[in-house]
Each structure stands twice: as structure tokens, then as C-alpha cells.
Design goal:
single chain; 721 residues; alpha+beta; 6-stranded mixed β-sheet; 39% helix
């Protein structure tokens, strides 16, 4: 939890204009963003206070104790959970005709934090927003303030309104004789403002604080606005590598931030200014008995799981017994080359595995050696991961990471067999694959639009898109409009902040720089308009079209020949049967209309098998047909809903046996039947049907090449294989 004290300068100098608005307007925006961040993303235990200095009124505890000091400093909010009252106070603040000492305000803020926090575990911060225009009467107290803030571990952040840029940032601005932005600001500032600015920079440096300057502060505050997540471990315990144990802890690295859940409230209570506007949901269950709906009490309700159209009931005790029980663990299973790991195998959120802090130096050295060894050998780890007792086990992948900040293992969840989606996608034929010039054009376009190697105006490379600064547009727009509605329930919904939208759209400068490459790609992949031809067979024809000529049989026959090539052959056969001349009478109708079967399908497997067995044009077709038929049989049994698929499977076995006996393929049939017996003998309903149909292996009396005698063949149905 955190205690934040906001100190805002409202003195006379804050009324100066800067960029079309007063300095105070810019300062108020910064304070509003700080408060809104706490309202939206802060923890419930966070507290905030506010102090104004440069006010005509003096109201603070230190002034009560020392009436001649700490004047023009006003406590407007004591430490409490931030609410809309703080925002309303900020909105109502105006420039006052007074001046306050910034050091007095800082001492007041520090005293408020110390009095509130005492020895409690709080993160303590002070935000000072000022233009340093007020007098600093006793700068000798700066070192005293620095020492006290360091003792109390209070962090200081200063937002400098109209502060000049650092000299090193503007060192190139005046090389052409013109003044840079920092020089212009320095020239426009009074001498006391420049002096105060230097003292505040000294103060920030002494306390290890930060100074954010002007509009840059608003940009920075906008980017840090995200929910604070406590650093809580998911797993704490040993990582087992055989007999070796390394004590580790896992923490979340990335996780999807969902939209906030909307609370429901009573509109009636809101209109009547009720103290409690919340509502609660009560769920009632009914069962229709006859014409009436009868409420079912909780005692009489049980859970049931669908099994087809049937519901299978389970009591609470049954559900508890169904739960998988196991102890928490992180156990290494094997090591795999990291380049063999497919990107699509990694599921869900990412955890970070680090050595346990309180496990000693030796434990940390073992972990470091393990990570370095994996990195050097280019290996990853597969592991069994159970975060807590009786949690769902996860098949995990651990990959090593070594950088200047830390050494760790990143943990990704791997899919089980049930998690795969075996979709089949077609590939380009050889004639449709891109040629060398097309590949080169696309490669040049990718290089030109590479965000990691962008160049600035001076030719230096930089990363154009930092992933940590790409925000969720849905969340940002939601928070943006909630902030507005909090003050005005009638305000219209606003569009997304352009600064956020910019990161989600192509960079205009990048597209302009890649204009040549885009044009080259378009030229390498030309598009041609292909007119769609209307197929004649889809055109609707009428008998009057055929009879529109002379009406003779010859004319009708000629038109039919144009419609269908098969009918040409049919007409020839018809002429041959009538004794016509010039007709090949050896052509059979079956040769014209026959459709060769090349595969055993699941719709009519018996017919397909027999059709393939009759073909003589392919010497290997019978072996392929037998193999496909056994697959159909296996699928019928494996995927059967209850016993619905068993009769079809037995019919297929019977047809396959007949074909194998006829073609002397006893070996393929017997091997397949043995495999079916091994896999499905425990399915009693199916195996009883096989036994009743006497689907035993082919014996030597049926095929001399069989390995089974007649007696051994009969025993297969009743004995284990």
C-alpha cells in the first residue's frame, strides 16, 4: 500500500500563460491524472493527501506550532482513500495573489506522511507540482530536508511547469545561431524562477527523486496509468531435476488484463439519494410438474453432466471424488533443443521462475549455473508444473533468459493432446510458388518496415515501437469515458485518445519511406481481371430450343452431342444397336458411365471395398483397400456413440474377410483382426457381436499361406491375443 502527498503551487507566478494556457491549468491536469490513476488503478488500501501553497489562507499543523513560519500553506485534504471530492477540489483551484515557500510546503507534506504512516509498511511518495516562482527564503534548510526525507524513505517526484530542458539535451540546438526550446524557456523565466529551479533539482538529486518537465510530464503520466499488481508468488518450492533440488519461486510475467466488471445498482435508490444503492442477485430454480412450476430447494438439486441427450447425475460427494488430487511440484521431465519448440505450442500467460531469496547463496549459484548451461547448450526444459496442492497439472516449457537485470527461466504452458486443433490447410502448387524476384521484393519491404531498425533524422537507429508502451484501446477508452462520466452523467462518449490510437495504426512516416518498396511489390504481383465464363451446362434449356430447327431426329441429336460428351458415346451406341455404320460396337455403356473407386469411404465402405477389389488396373490397390478398410472399422468402434456403430463395423469385417479369402490376402486380414482384438476386446458388446458373426482369422483350409490352423483360428475369438 502507498501514501501519496500531492503538493500544488497556486501562487501568483502560476497565472502566467504557457502555450495558450496558464501554468496552473497545466499543473491541474497533472494532478487530475495522478488522482484518476489512483481511483482507477490504485489499491484499496492506498491513501492520498493534498497540500496547496501560495494561498492567502494558512492552515497546517506546523504553523499552529510555529505561528511565524509555514505561512501560505494550506492542507486541503488529509490522508484518506482518494475519491471524487479530491478531483472536485483540484478543479476548483484558482491562482491566488500570494506567494508561498516551497520548502515550507515540503516540510508540511513530510510531517503529514510521518504522522499518518508512523511505523506501518507504506510506500511513501511526495508529488510536487510547481514553477519554482515563489521565494525560497531559507535555502540553508535544503540539506536538512534531504536528510529527513532519506531517513523516512520518502520518494520525491517534481513536475516542473515551464522548467528549462537539461543542457545536454539541447546542446545541438544553437549550432545554427537559433535558440533551442530550452534556451527560449530559460530566457522567458525570471531570475528567482531559475534559482528556485536549480535548488529543486539539487533537492531531487539528493533524495534520488525524479523531475518531469512540462508537457512531457503529462505524456509520462498518461503512459504509467495501469493497474498496480502486487508481487505475489504463484509457486514456491523445489524445482526437482532428478535427485537435485533448487528452491525457486514463480511470478506472473504477462497476463491478459480483462475489462473491469460493471457493478449493478438500483436506479430507484439513486434517484432517492439512498445510502445503499447496491443490488444483490437471488437465483431461483423451478421444475415443471404438470401445469405448475415448482421451486426446487437447494437440498434437492444435484449436478448432472450431458452424455448425448441423456443427463448423468453426480452428487457432491461424487464430484469431490472426481477431482484430480496431487501435490504441488515443478519437476523437470526432459531437455529439448530450443529450436525444435514450435511457437504455437506456447499457451496462455507467461510466468517467471527465479531462485528463492531466502534459500541462500548456494541455491542461487545452482540456479544460475543451470540457466547458463541451458543457454550455452541452446536447450529448453519440459516439466510438470502444479502451482498448489490439487491444482490442475500443467505440461510446461522452461526457456532460459539472461540479461543485465536478472537471470531467470520463462515458463510457458504446453498443450496436451486434447488441446491441439488438427486443421488441414492446402499448400501452393509448384507452379504457383513465388519466383526469386517476388521473394526479393517482399524481403526488401519487410526490411524497410522493420520497427527495430528505424532511423531518425540524424541516421541513428532506434526502436520505433516499444511493446511496453502499446496500450489496450478498449481499456483506455473505457477509463477515459468513466473519468468524464464521474463528473457529468450526461456527457457524451468520447473517441479514443489519439496518443493511444497512434500506436495501433501504421506510422505515416514509415509508410512514406517504404513507398518505393510497396510499389515494387505491387509490380511484381500484378493483378489481371479474368472474365467469368458462363458454363453452358448450368444454363437452363427448354425442349422448344431443341425443336426450333427442322425438328428432325438428326438435328436434336446434334444439339445433345454439344451438351454432353457422354451423350455422344450414348448416341453412337444407340446407332450401333440399330445397325448403323461407322460405329464402334465394342464400346460398352459401363465404360462410359463407370466411376472408378480409389478409396474406401465411411459412407459406403463395403461397396467401395468390393469395387476396388474388382479393379485390375492397379496391382497395389487391394493392399491399400484392406488397409483403409481396417481404419474405417477402427473408427467405427472408437467413435461409436454407445453401441450404435458396432453393427456397421462387424459388417465391414465380414465383407473384408470375404475379399481377403477370395484374393488370398490372409496375412493382412489376420494381422488387422489381431490388432482389433487387442484394442477392443474389452468392449464386451462389440466383441460379442464379432464372436456371434464368427469373424475368426482366415485358416489354412481357406488360404494355404495362412499361419493359423482351423483349431487355432477358432481359439482367437475366446482367448486373449
Amino acid at each position: 500500500k502507498e501514501a501519496v502527498c500531492v503538493i500544488l503551487d497556486v501562487g501568483r507566478s502560476m497565472g502566467k500563460e504557457s502555450g495558450g494556457e496558464t501554468r496552473l491549468d497545466l499543473a491541474k491536469k497533472a494532478v487530475q491524472m495522478l488522482v484518476q490513476t489512483k481511483l482507477l488503478f490504485g489499491k484499496k488500501s492506498d491513501e492520498m493527501a493534498m497540500v496547496l501553497f501560495g494561498t492567502a489562507v494558512t492552515e497546517n499543523k506546523l504553523n499552529e506550532e510555529h505561528p511565524d513560519h509555514y505561512k501560505h500553506v494550506q492542507q486541503v485534504h488529509v490522508f484518506a482513500k482518494p475519491d471524487l471530492d479530491v478531483l472536485e477540489t483540484v478543479s476548483a483551484v484558482e491562482v491566488e495573489d500570494a506567494e508561498g515557500d516551497v520548502l515550507d510546503a515540503l516540510f508540511v507534506g513530510l510531517e503529514m506522511i510521518v504522522s499518518r504512516v508512523k511505523h506501518l509498511k507504506f510506500t511513501k511518495r511526495i508529488f510536487l507540482i510547481t514553477d519554482a516562482g515563489g521565494p525560497i527564503r531559507d535555502d540553508a534548510h535544503i540539506q536538512m530536508l534531504i536528510d529527513e526525507m532519506n531517513i523516512q524513505e520518502v520518494k520525491l517526484n517534481i513536475i516542473g511547469v515551464d522548467f528549462a530542458e537539461d543542457e545536454d539535451e539541447d546542446e545541438d540546438s544553437g549550432t545554427d545561431g537559433r535558440m533551442g526550446d530550452g534556451e527560449k524557456k530559460a530566457a522567458s523565466r525570471a531570475e528567482n524562477e531559475i534559482k528556485g529551479e536549480l535548488l529543486l533539482k539539487q533537492l531531487a538529486q539528493g533524495t534520488g527523486g525524479q523531475i518531469l518537465i512540462g508537457s512531457e510530464a503529462l505524456t509520462a503520466l498518461n503512459f504509467i496509468r495501469k493497474r498496480t499488481v502486487s508481487m505475489v508468488h504463484k509457486y514456491k518450492g523445489p524445482m526437482n531435476i532428478g535427485a537435485l533440488e533448487i528452491q525457486v519461486a514463480t511470478y506472473g510475467k504477462t497476463s491478459v488484463q480483462n475489462m473491469p466488471t460493471l457493478k449493478k445498482e438500483s436506479a430507484v435508490a439513486v434517484e432517492q439519494n439512498g445510502l445503499d444503492t447496491g443490488v444483490r442477485m437471488v437465483r431461483t430454480y423451478y421444475n415443471k410438474l404438470g401445469e405448475d412450476d415448482v421451486e426446487v430447494e437447494k437440498l434437492h438439486r444435484i449436478k448432472a453432466y450431458p452424455y448425448g441427450k441423456q443427463l448423468v447425475p453426480f452428487s457432491e460427494a461424487d464430484i469431490d471424488n472426481l477431482k484430480y488430487t496431487c501435490d504441488k511440484c515443478l519437476t523437470v521431465l526432459a531437455f529439448v533443443p530450443i529450436d525444435t519448440v514450435k511457437r504455437y505450442w506456447c499457451l496462455g500467460a507467461v510466468d517467471c521462475v527465479v531462485p528463492m531469496k531466502d534459500a541462500g547463496v548456494r541455491n542461487g549459484l545452482k540456479f544460475s549455473a543451470f540457466v547458463h548451461a541451458l543457454k550455452k547448450e541452446k536447450l529448453a526444459v519440459t516439466a510438470r508444473y502444479v502451482k498448489r496442492k490439487n491444482a490442475t497439472p500443467v505440461f510446461a516449457l522452461l526457456t532460459p533468459e539472461i540479461n543485465p537485470e536478472n537471470e531467470c527461466l520463462y515458463l510457458n504452458q504446453l498443450p496436451f493432446s486434447e488441446d491441439y486443433r488438427d486443421y488441414v490447410f492446402g499448400s501452393f502448387e509448384e507452379k504457383h510458388k513465388p519466383d526469386q524476384n517476388q521473394r526479393l521484393a517482399m524481403r526488401n519491404l519487410i526490411k524497410r518496415m522493420d520497427l527495430n531498425t528505424m532511423e531518425d533524422e540524424d541516421g541513428f537507429e532506434f526502436e520505433a515501437l516499444n511493446m511496453e508502451e502499446v496500450f489496450n484501446p478498449c481499456l483506455r477508452r473505457f477509463y477515459q469515458n468513466v473519468e468524464k462520466r464521474a463528473f457529468d452523467p450526461e456527457v457524451s462518449i468520447e473517441e479514443l485518445d489519439p496518443a493511444v490510437a497512434k500506436t495501433l495504426n501504421p506510422d505515416e512516416k514509415l509508410l512514406i519511406s517504404a513507398k518505393k518498396e510497396v510499389k515494387n511489390v505491387v509490380e511484381r504481383f500484378p493483378l489481371q481481371v479474368v472474365e467469368k465464363k458462363t458454363a453452358s451446362k448450368n444454363k437452363k434449356r427448354h425442349w422448344r430450343d431443341f425443336l426450333s430447327g427442322d425438328g428432325s431426329v438428326a438435328h436434336v441429336s446434334a444439339m445433345l452431342v454439344q451438351e454432353d460428351e457422354d451423350l455422344i458415346q450414348a448416341k453412337k451406341l444407340k446407332g450401333a444397336s440399330l445397325g448403323g455404320e461407322g460405329i464402334d460396337t465394342k464400346i460398352k455403356m459401363d465404360d462410359i458411365v463407370a466411376h472408378k473407386v480409389d478409396m474406401v469411404g465411411s459412407a459406403t465402405p463395403v461397396e467401395d471395398l468390393k469395387a476396388m477389389a474388382e479393379r485390375k488396373d492397379d496391382p497395389d490397390i487391394i493392399t491399400r483397400a484392406i488397409k483403409e478398410m481396417w481404419k474405417i472399422i477402427n473408427d467405427c468402434v472408437q467413435e461409436s456413440f454407445g453401441s450404435a456403430g458396432y453393427p456397421k463395423a462387424v459388417d465391414c469385417i465380414q465383407a473384408l474377410r470375404e475379399v481377403c479369402v477370395k484374393n488370398e490376402e490372409s496375412s493382412d486380414f489376420n494381422t488387422g483382426l489381431e490388432a482389433i482384438a487387442k484394442s477392443f476386446r474389452d468392449r464386451k458388446a462389440f466383441w460379442d457381436m464379432v464372436v456371434d458373426a464368427k469373424m475368426r482369422p482366415i485358416d489354412k483350409t481357406e488360404d494355404a499361406t495362412s499361419k493359423y490352423t482351423k483349431e487355432a483360428s477358432k481359439k482367437v475369438l475366446t482367448q486373449s491375443v
